[in-house]
Amino acid sequence: MEESEARRRAEEFGRTLTDRWDEWAFELGSWATPAVTGIYGFTWYPTARDELGRQIRVGGNWPILVDRQTGACRVVQGLNEMAALKGTPGVRDVRRSEGTARQPRSNGG
Fold it and tell me: Model-level pTM?
């Protein structure tokens, strides 16, 4: 599948994720997935401005993935999948060891 067809499918899929696709003037951007072959990745973001002229912001819009063989579309399923697609380590639970815990401040003495 050519990227242009994948982009068309991603936009069609994106329109099912929000009823404000046209109102907020969403656009697709290419999203590199270096660690995985066989998919196209697209970010999607609004380009419209609010009544004060500020860029409209949307949270939680994970990139859209399009399978190059089947054309099936879906969104990235969380931080660990996003990291895997980028070829970076997944999310880790980082905790301070007792030796590096913050010590209470003393009051001048």
Answer: 0.73
